[in-house]
# Entry
Amino acid sequence: MIVLYSSPGCASCRKVRQWLKERNLKFIEKNIFTSMLSEKEIKHLLMRSENGTEDIISKRSKVMQESQIDLDALSINELIVFIQRHPSILKRPIVMNEKTFLVGYDEEEIDAFLPSEMRQSHRISMETASEL
# Structure
């Protein structure tokens, strides 16, 4: 199952949502501001990201700039509580399923969420279009 972590007013989140709907892919959308992420969900996001906090936390967010917090100095439990209290520090959207993890909207990388048979037919139609 595809899970989309999003927020209202996020243009990239709308693009991902639209992309998923256009392809009739089932997904669960979690608004990070209206439903608090559980400890388990946050740990899962951190484990799935290749570079840990660097991949999913926006150092440019207002909270990060104002707090002057050193993420590397936090214990995992402190980090989880910090994310739960300040969900705006998370980069958005975060899209994941059993195999794929994507932060942001990338037209090429998002194709990884297509079932293999759909990816193959998409690739063929793209090749055909480029030959014209």
